[in-house]
What does this fold into?
Amino acid sequence: MPKFAAFTLVEMVMTLMIASIIAIISVKFIGQTTRSMLDTGERQRLADTADIISEQISRRIRYALPGSLRVTNDGSCIEYMPLVATTAYIDLENNAQVSEIKAVPLSATESFSGYISIYPLVGNLYNKNNNNGPQTVNIETLPAGTAPVIISLSQPHRFNRASSQNRLFISADPEAICQDGEWLYLYRGYGFVNNVNQLTAALPGSFATGRQVLANSLQVSSLVFSYSPSSQRRNALVAVSFTIADATGNTLSLAQEVQVRNVP
It folds into this structure.
């Protein structure tokens, strides 16, 4: 009878051991690869959230009215007045009560309404009980036209200083961006608060009254604003830093500077 070669018991055991080792290595490799992919996905989600927060903040304060930005003592809130339009005035009596301003129109068909400001770097823009300062007390209108137009003020106003570039700004009611817990909120419609340290107490507490969610996942108390005022030749600068955290404990910190692109 022919002889058939077969595995001995020792060879079989060695084969099983080698196969087991290869299987364990393969499982560990696949597990590590999968875990790495999951970690990368988590980090990407954190990065995406940080980008959203950064864009939400910078887009709103980049074109704020010069001199209107201010930060609370703890740095968790920044307040500003959004610009509606910018033009040039032609004739304005300096440091005197005026009832009208001659200015360059921005459109032949569209008018622009808001608070009128001239050199808004001096005085408190948030004090609306004073008709002697860089900004009008009431909302005024720049008429449409194809030639110089007259802005008729609703009440006489004295502007403290003239602009070297004859710049005239039209701005809207104040807005604020603040952190509350893990949430980043935009606040509107709360009016003018004379003292910035009383700002947080005056902010609306719901969507119906003027609070809008911009983002979440902020690490508690991590958002910090700081503000370097502008001058006649230099734009204002806002520095902001914050940390994003997820449910698994991963964090991502970001710091940036936003240039306010308007000089008076």
